[in-house]
Design a protein that fits this description.
It is an enzyme of class 2 (transferase). This protein has 168 residues and is of the alpha/beta class. The protein has six helices and seven strands. Helix content is 38%, strand content 26%.
Amino acid sequence: MDFNNAYLSVSREQGEGLKRLIKENNIKNIVEFGTSFGISTLFLAQGAMETGGRIITTELITSKAIKAVENFKKAGVSELIEVRIGNAMETLKNHNRPIDLLLLDGWKDLYLSLFQMLEPNFHSDTIIYVDNADMADTRKFLKTIGENKKYQLKSKFGGKAVLITIKK
């Protein structure tokens, strides 16, 4: 499959759920792994507009990131979103600010290493939203995280997504 032109995003139902999650939890600091054309990011931005939040999103494929930036401008939310182009393991390497919401929606085989790299930025109320939870690589990631007693996993949208929270 040619991922350069594939629109990969959460469903409308998931997008509305993300927006609600952001508002209900007063989420401000959002990191998204896997911008694609920015469709999912636009749902995040709708929530962030109401909480005064900001989004850092990262996309490997330059042409997709450029199209996403155009979409953000058209939607009038550019000022809320910082787009980083390149491998997320590089673009997020020095991230040192608290993360309220981490959306994992990029290459599934990077979920674990990205999660571990960003984990020092999690706090007691951090929510990790894992998309494509029904895919094999994602299930391996979730099994690994599920073995850590620190985290609680909750399936959403018929198993398409999983919310990871820190046990209180």
